[in-house]
Amino acid sequence: MRHGGGGDVQTGESVLSFKSFEKGREKWQGETLHGVWFDEEPPLDIYSEGLTRTNATSGITIVTFTPLLGMSDVVLLFLSAGEVERMGNG
User: Fold this and answer.
1) Cβ-count burial of 42 within 10 angstroms (0-12 exposed, 13-18 middle, 19+ buried)?
2) What residue segments make up the domains of the chain, in order of their start?
3) Is residue 53 within a helix (H) or strand (E), and if so which, with residue range?
4) Which of 52, 82, 84, 85 has the fewest CB atoms below 10 angstroms from its CB?
């Protein structure tokens, strides 16, 4: 997609790609990305790979999901030990 200049936005092009979790972590390897958006809870290995793809550009990773899998490894990354303990006692 092309985006035009105006204000602080520079003229340029961006590439939007879609990837499936079912294809596995290997399909996520290799590319350097400016952003990753997970719209469902990813497996931990794919989440980690998505973060790795944005490291070189100081890019952004967005994760939006309902934790239907419960206290998965990915969910636990976003909670402090105290929060996890309170939930266990709650």
Assistant:
1) buried
2) 31-89
3) helix 44-55
4) 82
